[in-house]
Every structure is written in C-alpha cells, then in structure tokens.
Amino acid sequence: MWLVFKKEIKELLRDRKTLFFMVALPLLIFPVLIGVAGFVSKQAMDKAENQVLNYALVGGQYAPEIVEDLQQPDKFKLVKISEDADYTVIIRDETVDFVLVIPENYSSNVLENGQTNIKLYFNDAGLNLVYRRVNEIVKSQSELFQQRAFSVLGLDEAQQSALIEPIVLEKMNTADNRENWGEKIGGMLPYILFLICLTGAMAPATDIGAGEKERGTLETLLISPIDRNKIVMGKFLTVAFAGTMTALLTVASMVIWGLVLSQGMAIKFVADFMAQIAMLDFLLIFLMLVPVVAIFAAVLLSISIYAKSFKEAQSYMGPMSILVVIPIMLALLPGVELKGVWAWVPITNVSLAMKELLKGTMDYYQLFAIFGSTVLIAGALFAFCVYWFNQEKVLFR
Amino acid sequence: MIEIKQLAKKFAVENPKKLSEQEKKDPRLKGRFFHSVQDVSFTCQKGEVLGLLGPNGAGKTTTLRMLSTALKPDGGSVEISGENVLENPVIARKKIGFLSGSTGLYGRLTGRENIHYFGQLHGMSEESIALRIKELADLLDMHNFLDRRSENFSTGMKQKTAIARAVVHSPELVILDEPTTGLDIMATQTVLEFIRGLKEQGTPVIFSTHHLDEVEELCDKVTVIDQGSTMFDGDIASFKALAEGSLHQSFMAAIQSTASE
Q1: d(CA B1, CA B175)
Q2: What is the pLDDT of residue B57?
Q3: Among residues B198, B197, B200, B195, which one has the least CA distance to residue B211?
Q4: Tell me, what's the pLDDT at B205?
Q5: Contact (CB, 8 A) for B40 and B225
Q6: Residue A198 placed within a domain
C-alpha cells in the first residue's frame, strides 16, 4: 500500500502541471491577482474621488452659499448650458457630469419656508461618487439651517437631539467579538477550503485512474501480485494527501499574504481574533478537513477509474464543484445548526463545525456524529471504489 | 507446465443497438452476451515457445488476459505447474510475466524506476532488484537510456523497458501479447532475441502475433484461434503439413478446415 502511495507521490511531484495547480496557484498567483484587483479598484476609487466634475447650475442665484462651496477648481468646474437644455442629453454626451437644480423657495428660514427640494441630475449607473460629493456640500448647508432654526426656537442641546431622533433603538450585542466575527469568517472558510481541496485533489485523481488506463499501465498494475485493496488504498491516500496539502498551503499562503498586504493596519485585529481561538480548536479545524477530503478522494477516485480517458474523467468531475457548494450553502441557512440530523449531513456538518470552532461555541460531542457519518460515507464510497476496481467491465471499458 | 482447458469468456452487451452489422452477424453473439472466447485449449511445456495465431477479434487478447488473471474466465481451467490460476490468482501472478500489446510506462518515472516499482510490487528485495535490472539492461542493451524519463522514449526503448518490467521477477512463464506490433526491424529483432534467450533458459513463452515468419523462426508449437475456439493445436511440423507451400496457406487451411465443418 505504501509502495503504491510512495510511487504515486513521486510521480505527482514530477508532474509540473499538477504541481502548478497545487502549489503555484494558491501560493503566488491568487494573492497576486487579488492584490492587483485591489490595487486597480483603489485606483479607480481615487480617480472618482479626485476627478474634476463638470457641472451645470440652475437657480444658483437662490443659494449663494452652495454656489460658493462649489467653487473649488480642483474638484468642480462650472459649465454654462442653455436654459432649455435637456439634462439627460447633456449628461449622456458628457458635456456635464451633473446638473444641480435649486428651487425658488430655497431659503435659510426653514421654519417659514419648509423643506427645500434640490434636484441632482446625474447618471447613477456604474461606479461614481457624484452623489456623495455633492451631498457633502448640501448636507453641511442643511445642518447649518437646522442649527439656525433650533436657535430661533430657543431649544437646548438635549431638546435638539431629541427632536432630530425622538426614539433611539440601541443595539446591545451579547455575542462577543469572537462569536461575531467567527460567524462571518466561519461561513466563508469552508467555501474556500473545500473548493481548493477539491481542485487540488482533482488533478492527481484524474491522473491516477483514468490517466493510468489511458497510458495502458493499469492492466500491468492489476496483474502484479498485490491486493486490489492495497492499490486502491494507495491511490486513495495519494488523492487525499494532495487535496489536504493544497488546502493547507492555501491557508498558509492566505495568512502570510494577508499579514504582508495589510501592513500593520488590521494586524492587531487579526492577532486579537487569533489569540482568542485555542490551539486545540485550530487543530480541530484542520482535522475537520480529514472527513471532507476522505469523501472527495473516494468520489473522485471512483469517477476516475470509471472514465475511459483523461478527458472523460475531467468532464465527469466538472460538476463536482457545484455539488460541493450546495451543502456548504445549507450550512449558512438560518436555523441550520450543528445538532440532530444536521450533524449527520456530510460536508454541511463540517462547514457548521468549522464555524462553531471559530466562534468558540463548539459542542465537542458532535464530533462523534461528524466523524461517524464521514466514516460511514467515505467507507461506503471506498468499498465502492474497491468493488469497481474488481469489475472487469469498468477496468476494460 | 501450463495447461489450458476449454477456456470460455462472455461479455455482457450493454447496448445491442450500438453493435456494427458485422458484429451482429458474428455467431458468438447470443442474446445479451457476446461469447468472445468459447472453447480454447492448449498446453505448453518447459522450454517451449507457443505461437498464438488468429485473425483480429478472434479472442487472442481475451485468452491471454485470462491467462494473466486480468480477466476471470467463465468456464474452463488454467493450470500452471499444477497450480490452479483461477483459485489462486495472486500466486499465479508471481509465476507469470505478462506484456500486453497496449501497455504503457509511467512517463514521469525513468526507465529504471518503472522496472524498480514493479520489482517492489513483486516483493523483491532492493539488492535483487538492482541486480536484476543490471542483468536485463545488459541483455536488452538499455544502459544508455535507463535513467532518462520514459515519456521521451522511442517505441523501441519503451518496448524494451516494458519487457524488462514484465520479467523483472524472473517468472516461470512469459506471456506476450503482440510484442512486435508497431516496432521497427531493430526493435523487433531485440524482442525475438529475448524470446530466444528465454527459450534457452527453459522458460516457456506464449506469444500472439500476426507475423508468420516469427512463428517459423521461434515456435515449437502453434495454436490457431478463430471466433473464440481453438482451430488447430499442435507442433510446428504438423502445422506446416496442413497445406502445401507457405505457412500462410497452413493458416488459412487451419481456419477453413474447421469453419467448413
């Protein structure tokens, strides 16, 4: 069994293509891509923030304060438009970025004139900061008017804030910081871990079953005096090992790159969060990968043995990643908790357990259910693998 | 030494509609089963080389696969030195060296590692594997490519490596399924030399082929199979005596004599 395992690993390590998917992709390319994407979007945001906006003003004479505030040549540029211009058209042909229409009744005397309705015409499809930037100016005016009205009415500060918001509903979160973030991160973690695990296991699985059939080495292997069970076990371990290693490498790279990229700003938060999670829980999180990988490896291996060729195996395995997402999504549904029946649903139970472990609210007895159901399922799948390895019609298809 | 009696093998036909016209006419198709091999018997003694002849689709490969225990026969018996292969496939596998026509190598391993791996699978010790590889490399002249990755081997190099792999455990019986098909003249010669070497050592060899000159050159015995049944089984002299002239005529006679019955 270890003989088969050793040889498969050796072969795997010599395969540049598989190695690329297992190591280079999670270690280098993903973080670089994420980094590039982040950089580009930051650039775009900066650009939107600093871009000089062309604007047209209608009824500017009613609101001299706003006109004054808009006179920042590095941010806004006034464009003259004809009185009967169609705002939609001039915005579409980019003559102006926005049109601000101030009504006649604009007045600082809020108590007499009531609410003023200023209209901002702009194209809000797509990323832009027009509304935010104009709103900054209008809001400061609005607050100024509010203050003026309050002083006319002669209200003290307590009365003022009570008038602005008569009743406040205050959120008192009984969950501590860890539970709060554990829920959020714990929901995401299985997605990433499982899918990477699956991708990592897929390449060697294809190679080990269908690949061996395609190259014609399977027959020779089958007539060597080694138990079929041992061949299957060796191959199974190889696939599982590859999957686990990929997942671990990815997590490690994510942690390292996360630390590097966040450059001190979020480190304290991350460190605090990490410090709250016991070593045992960390170990258990990674241990949780074992049942998942076992199921993946058994399924992938059966598919791979059944397939006639590489290509066939790959097209059978394609839908797997979609199938895997469903039980993870189930774990995110409200009301789905790690107890009773759900503790026995494969993959869902592990997703739930990961979340609980991160939150620190794990019921450790449920581990029995998790490992119990996994042993049953992986065992059955494994037996099926062995059965298939003994089927002539599968092997000599 | 090796005795095969009334070997039979049928395959379930999954989708009868997919079969070609020719396959449907084949008398071996009975209901949902295709009786690929129906009645094959032959024997091969120590030091003998047996040539297995037959047209394409006659059941040669299926027969040899059953001998090598890759497939399980539905009927008949295979005995190697009195050991029943069907009851004890693992022991039989140790005694047989099998090289299939469609075999391949692990491309990312070197020639030496390929042979080594199968030596290990046969439970050989490290020293004996190393010794045996050296011996085989001398015999098959493979020293200059033994430590290169086998994915870049030429067909001849691959075949040599495959042969070395098949006999690394010094089997009592060697079975070769079309060992010379697709090889150039030099490589073919190496294979034939190798079979001759085995014969001199007293190891029986069963090989299937389409080249009658190889049969004439090497074989002591000839078995002709057609449509899953043995049509002729005897020594080379009586095979030649089947018809006047060349072995081709003998072969045609062997197929027709029983077909017309």
Answers
A1: 13
A2: 83
A3: B195
A4: 92
A5: yes
A6: yes
Q: Is the CB of residue B181 less than 8 Å from the CB of residue B211?
A: no
List of residues 6+ apart from A295 with CB closer than 8 A: A346, A347, A374, A377, A378, A381
Tell me what pLDDT residue B260 has: 46
Measured distance CA(A49)–CA(A45) in Å, rounded: 6
Q: Classify B2-103+172-259 by CATH class.
A: alpha beta
pLDDT digits (tens, 9 = 90+) for A353-369: 888 888 877 788 888 88
A351 in the same domain as A242: yes
Contact criterion met (CB < 8 Å) for A220 and B91: no
The closest alpha carbon to B232, from B252, B216, B215, belongs to B252
From the list A7, A14, A216, the residue facing B102 with the nearest CB is A216
Minimum-distance CB partner of A224 among B11, B104, B121: B121
Whole-prediction pTM: 0.76
Are B104 and A215 in contact (CB < 8 Å)? yes
**Structural contact between residues A306 and A389, judged by C-beta atoms closer than 8 angstroms:** no
Q: Are strands B205-208 and B173-177 parallel, antiparallel or unpaired?
A: parallel
CA of A222 vs chain B CAs: smallest distance (Å): 7
Tell me if B65 and A219 make a contact (CB, 8 A cut-off).
Answer: yes
Whether A205 and A333 map to the same domain: the answer is yes
Are A348 and A331 spatial neighbours (Cβ–Cβ below 8 Å)? yes
Looking up residue A113, the CATH number of its domain turns out to be: 3.40.190
| C-alpha to C-alpha distances, A93 to A103, A114, A119, nearest whole angstrom | 25, 36, 20
Helical ranges in chain A per DSSP H: 2-14, 16-19, 30-50, 64-70, 87-92, 110-113, 130-153, 157-164, 177-206, 212-215, 218-222, 228-262, 267-276, 279-306, 310-317, 320-332, 348-359, 366-389, 392-395
Query: ipTM, 2 decimals?
Result: 0.83
Nearest to A234 by CA among B152, B120, B163: B120
Question: What are A's interface residues with B at a Cβ cutoff of 8 A?
Answer: 3, 7, 10-11, 14-15, 215-217, 219-227, 392-393, 395-396
> Looking at beta carbons, which residues of chain A come within 8 Å of B103?
216-217, 219-220
Q: Quick check: is A170 in a domain?
A: no
> For A8-56, what is each residue's pLDDT tens digit?
888 777 777 767 766 777 677 777 887 788 888 888 888 878 888 888 8
